[in-house]
Amino acid sequence: MYNEKLVELKKKIIEFASLIETMIHNSVTGLLEKNLELLEDVIQKLEPRANESENEIDEMCTSLIAQFQPAAKDLRTILMVYRMNSDLERMGDHAVNIAESAMFLIERPNVKPFIDLPKMNELVTKMVTDSITSFINEDVALARSIGASDAAVDELKDKSSEELIECMVKDPETVERAMHLSRVLGNLERIADLSTNIGEDVAFMVAGLVTKHHKNEINPIAS
Fold first, then answer.
1. What separation in angstroms does the CA of 190 have from each of 21, 113, 126, 138, 202?
2. Which of 23, 24, 168, 184 has a CA that sits 20 to 30 A from residue 40's CA?
3. Angstrom distance (rounded) from CA 52 to CA 56
4. 2-220 adopts what CATH topology?
């Protein structure tokens, strides 16, 4: 009974992750391709589904711990899913923020050509996918590699932010559009941070390795 419920919990979190990946993809693609339908889909259809999934998974985690009092790796797995569930829900919120700003932006001329945004989106998308894959395959090496992309995302975000400031200084009429685009960049950066969190939690779940706040060392925890 317990093993079946744990398998079901893992299945639910993987399905939730897939939904969040779709939300992120649709929000950024909607902006880049000026596709209003994709943006409306994120806000009107996918977000309510994400909220339902988060509540369901929270309840499943609480029930498993209360009913079976798991220990060692089993307990770490459930706690990992609980934390991952929260991180994924926050990713969904950031995707909605992107979609909202995109709906404003697609009706107006671009502040500047989209050069760094597609690169940033590609990196962030890979980080999200790798975090989920590391969980599915219990791949500690992949999980620990995710944080390496975070610096590249930060660098692209900072570069784009500086360019947007220059645009606003040169042409005050771009301020509102530039602020919305800056909001898009900031939300993508936060999704990257949350992907890194998941990678750290996967390392803890699989091998009891504490990597958070310890970039150059590994702290094993007895299993």
1. 14, 23, 14, 24, 19
2. 168
3. 6
4. Methane Monooxygenase Hydroxylase; Chain G, domain 1 (1.20.58)
Question: Cα 165 from chain centroid?
Answer: 26
- Residues 6+ positions from 148 with CB-CB distance below 8 Å: none
Indicate yes or no: pTM above 0.70: yes
Residue 206 contacts residue 213 (beta carbons within 8 Å): no
| CA atoms lying within 13 Å on the CB side of residue 21 | 17
What residue segments make up the domains of the chain, in order of their start? 2-220
pLDDT single digits (tens) 40-73: 999 999 999 999 999 999 999 999 999 999 988 8
Quickly tell me which residue has 């939904």 as its tokens: 19
Q: Where are the alpha helices (DSSP H) in 33-71?
A: 36-41, 47-68
Which token pair is 212?
A: 């958070």
Closest of 1, 2, 192, 191 to residue 78, by C-alpha? 2
